[in-house]
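Customer escalation, tier 2.

The customer says the design service returned an amino acid string that "doesn't look like it belongs to this structure." They asked us to rerun it and document both sides in this ticket. The original structure tokens are below, unchanged.
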């Protein structure tokens, strides 16, 4: 049943096997986390619509505000390799009692590439919460908004 759902435009819940595989990939990426300041390791695994997988981890910096989240690093890796059409991203951390939740900046970064793809928030026991980008960032601003009708300023040159 889930197998059929998966074929509809590449959307719908991932099969259990594929989700487990992506969780393993996200956990492996988490092991590479460079987080000497927060000691908060995060990894993610991104599945493109043509079934490529990209992974990434958070990378902190002595200049704290330059630290980069795992999700953004992962998406940037995919985009830099020519992939912009995404099916799902799985996020893992060391939190055992709460599903890891992407920060606001990462939600906006995901939204740039569509609203209908999926984000799996996980716990260390392997359980996950499936959400869409639209659910994580309601009433969002995206690339389409830049092309919408705007007020024309009189002195606009
Ligand atoms: Zn983030």
């Amino acid at each position: 049943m889930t197998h059929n759902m998966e074929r509809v435009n590449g959307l719908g819940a991932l099969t259990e096997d594929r989700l487990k595989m992506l969780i393993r990939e996200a956990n492996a990426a988490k092991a590479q986390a460079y987080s000497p300041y927060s000691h908060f390791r995060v990894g993610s695994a991104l599945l493109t619509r043509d079934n490529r997988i990209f992974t990434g981890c958070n990378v902190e910096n002595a200049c704290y505000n330059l630290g980069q989240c795992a999700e953004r690093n992962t998406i940037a890796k995919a985009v830099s390799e020519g992939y912009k059409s995404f099916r799902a991203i799985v996020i893992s951390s060391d939190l055992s009692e709460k599903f890891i939740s992407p920060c606001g900046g990462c939600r906006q970064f995901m939204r740039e590439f569509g609203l209908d793809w999926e984000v799996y928030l996980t716990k260390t026991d392997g359980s996950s919460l499936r959400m869409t980008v639209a659910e994580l960032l309601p009433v969002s601003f995206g690339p389409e908004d830049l092309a919408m009708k705007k007020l024309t300023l009189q002195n606009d040159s």
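Tier 2 assessment: The sequence is consistent with the input. The radius of gyration is 17 Å. Strands lie at 42-48, 53-57, 86-93, 118-122, 128-132. Sent an explanation to the customer and offered a walkthrough call.
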